[in-house]
Specification:
The protein is of the alpha/beta class and 202 residues long. The chain has 7 helices and 9 strands.
């Protein structure tokens, strides 16, 4: 199961990950602006799904949002709880969020889908669709590429997605894509983000 594989991989390298990528100083300025702008349009609770070391959850909390982080790696939750006492964190899977149906206004899924295989990505997307209220907003960050392709991520095998392909997965999960962004920098993997809104429940 991909969650078990990625959880073990991140658990083994948690300290290294926290040191290198676990603060807002490691975040690209355009990503900070995108997430901040997105969150400013969300009215209600935000779940940081796959929050890692917790810096994005804390960033949202400091901006005045009602945000809570969820991650499957115990070391990340321990670190986040100790480092960011003003924010809320809990251990759990993004495939089975602890939230009532239609109760959440926004979900930030910042690179937390990259380890799901194409035939399993509907599990978290379906769960996001379940907990988001109609019209609720989802922001997904991911690695972009010309085709859905597995690659050797530094921690665990991951996938890159064309924007249109991940957009089709979102559509199948009950979302309408509102906007997309792609950032390409020489010498780096291309990055992308999609903002999508939950359609009304049928």
């Amino acid at each position: 199961m991909v969650n078990e594989v990625s959880r073990a991989a991140y658990s083994n390298r948690a300290a290294e990950y926290i040191e290198v990528l676990g603060t807002m100083s490691s975040v690209h300025p355009s990503d900070r602006q995108l997430v901040s702008s997105w969150a400013g349009r969300v009215e209600g609770e935000i779940i940081d799904a796959g929050c890692g070391p917790g810096h994005w959850t804390n960033f949202l909390t400091e901006q005045g949002h009602n945000a809570r982080g969820v991650d499957q790696v115990p070391q990340f939750i321990t670190h986040a709880t100790a480092t960011y006492p003003r924010a809320s964190f809990s251990l759990g899977s993004i495939d089975t969020l602890n939230a009532a149906t239609g109760s959440v206004a926004g979900i930030l899924s910042w690179y937390s889908l990259i380890h799901h295989e194409p035939d399993t990505v509907q599990a978290p997307l379906g769960e996001f669709g379940r907990v988001l209220e109609p019209g609720g907003s989802l922001l997904v960050g991911f690695f972009e590429g010309p085709e859905v392709e597995r690659f050797a991520h530094a921690v665990a095998p991951a996938y890159r997605w064309p924007v249109d392909s991940l957009g089709a997965q979102l559509n199948a999960a009950g979302f309408d894509v509102a906007e997309s962004h792609v950032r390409k920098v020489a010498g780096e993997r291309p990055h992308a983000a999609i903002v999508a809104r939950r359609r009304s429940f049928s």
